[in-house]
Design brief:
mainly alpha, Amino acid/polyamine transporter I
């Protein structure tokens, strides 16, 4: 028995040693050092760092803004082509393989990994932010168009980014059986041996930096709302930044615990999050008192968005009368691009056994459908109170009220508002946890030179990434960055990453074409 135990220990040590040998320390340590350096600079030089971010954002977002819009529209068109062309029949796995997860479990994990708690934050208040923008008056009725743009910014093009790349990564992992879960590997059909050289390393480092920029934006935008809710519930007068840091740490503990329990933990947490999310939406829809307005205005907004989709997707405001696309549409497309480093990899991983057509159409049905429900129900509840019940949400925000206080006013107008506050913060924590456990898992895979099928990253590497994901958000918090400067991190990171996304799409079509030709020859 003693010899058996010693043999097990020896095998365990060998396994750990082999796992350590596979780790790409450059991809792991360089981003860590870079993010820690940025974090220190943001905290020590808050004014200077914010000024530099603003100037860089202006160059990319204003001078080169059309670049983001063209890529966004192009990726959406590619998604339609993939779904309804000959490529749609390709199974992400063996040709007779069946999906591992049910549609609901698959959709829950896909939805929660791709959106985080931002969806609740913006669903409440985005319509009011747009309502005071001069571009709404240019279009006509403020109330009408203010509820259209949230649907546009969060639906078809955002999910197109995710689903097109998810298909490319799923094909790479499950059909071609490649053992490197990285952006560079997805470019191999075009780059060839250059994938293993300096160019491939550059693509992977760029991807990791973009990932950290995206997570920083997400955490920095919505966690202060959670801090505001905690302060309201318990009557705390502590600095909101301190409460936000505590929330970040609690959220980190939750998603770290979930991740270390593997895919089962991620799936359970995702389904729990979805149940709470849809339960909350149903409560507001049924008991909020604005059911009729929500249905009618939601239906009208959806129709306007679809009818004017290409016009909205190509609007550049060339005379800069309002800077609306520069401030919002371009930011959002950049935001989805940086999230593409992880979310599509995770979606591609869990989509094994589904065809490309099923993945794209199912993703649009569950992802876009759930997103639209959130914005239609929560946004139109608040707008209904403004139009029908004399609320002053728009006027208060226009007079200088911040987004967090605006959301608190909206929630306090609901029945059983204290219960709603508790439900909102629990759902936000679960959204963050279900997003960041999947992100940390995929980021951990980036740390490995190779990972065989069904092989998982070492738990210590997973733990490092769980911690790393909250470092930059805390730094941005203490640097007192404005919303514009928080958004800048995504816009800057997305510029070079967009070229890589295009390269991945071209590589996928080249590889998928060859796959179909080879399969045809076999028949």
């Amino acid at each position: 028995m003693e010899g058996f135990v010693e043999d097990l220990e020896e095998k365990s040590e060998k396994k750990d040693f082999d796992s350590v040998k596979k780790i790409d320390w450059m991809i792991t340590l360089v981003p860590l050092a870079f993010i820690l350096t940025l974090a220190v600079l943001f905290i020590i030089f808050p004014v200077e760092s914010n000024n530099i971010l603003s100037k860089i954002r202006f160059f990319f977002g204003d001078t080169l803004g059309s670049y983001y819009l063209i890529i966004g529209l192009g990726v959406f068109i590619v998604s339609i082509v993939l779904a309804f062309s000959k490529y749609g029949d390709i199974v992400l796995g063996g040709q007779d393989e069946k999906p591992k997860y049910s549609f609901f479990a698959w959709g829950s994990m896909m939805f929660t990994c791709g959106l985080a708690a931002d969806i609740l934050f913006y669903s409440f208040n985005e319509w009011a932010v747009y309502a005071i923008n001069p571009h709404m008056k240019e279009l006509g009725d403020v109330n009408t168009w203010a509820s259209v743009f949230p649907l546009f910014h969060w639906s078809l093009i955002p999910w197109a980014f995710y689903l097109v790349l998810a298909v490319a990564f799923g094909f790479m992992l499950h059909v071609r059986k490649r053992n490197r879960q990285r952006f560079s590997e997805a470019c191999r059909p075009v780059l060839g041996k250059k994938t293993d050289g300096i160019l491939g390393r550059f693509i992977d480092l760029l991807s990791v930096f973009a990932l950290l920029a995206g997570t920083a934006t997400t955490f920095s935008v919505a966690t202060p709302l959670m801090a505001t809710i905690i302060g309201d519930l318990f009557g705390l007068t502590v600095d909101r930044r301190i409460i936000t840091v505590v929330i970040l740490l609690i959220t980190c503990v939750v998603y770290t615990y979930s991740l270390l329990h593997g895919m089962k933990g991620i799936s359970v947490l995702a389904k729990l999050c979805i149940y709470l999310f849809f339960g909350f939406l149903a409560f507001v829809f049924i008991f909020g008192g604005e059911l009729k307005f929500t249905i009618e205005n939601g239906l009208q907004s959806l129709g306007l968005m679809i009818n004017h989709f290409f016009e909205l997707a190509t609007f550049t405001d060339p005379t800069r009368t309002t800077n609306f696309p520069q401030d919002w549409t371009i930011y959002y497309w950049a935001y989805w691009m940086v999230w593409c480093v992880c979310a599509p990899f995770f979606i591609g991983t869990i989509s094994r056994g589904r065809t490309i057509r099923q993945t794209i159409i199912g993703g649009y049905a569950f992802g876009v459908g759930s997103t639209l429900l959130s914005f239609i129900i929560l946004g139109n509840y608040a707008m209904g109170k403004e139009v029908n019940a004399g609320a002053n949400f728009i006027a208060n925000y226009a007079s200088g009220q911040d987004m967090y206080s605006l959301i608190m006013d909206i929630i306090h107008s609901m029945p059983f508002s204290t219960l709603v506050l508790i439900l909102v913060i629990v759902t936000m924590i679960l959204f963050y946890a279900t997003s960041f456990d999947s992100i940390a898992l995929i980021a951990s895979c980036y740390s490995y030179k190779k990972l065989e099928e069904n092989e998982k990253p070492h738990k210590f590497i997973q733990f490092i990434w769980c911690i790393l994901l909250i470092v930059l958000p805390i730094a941005l918090l203490f640097s007192e960055s404005s919303m514009s400067n928080i958004q800048s991190t995504s816009i800057i990171a997305a510029f070079p990453l967009a070229l890589v996304i295009v390269l991945i799409i071209v590589s996928f079509f080249k590889d998928a074409k060859k796959f179909r030709e080879d399969r045809y020859k076999e028949k």
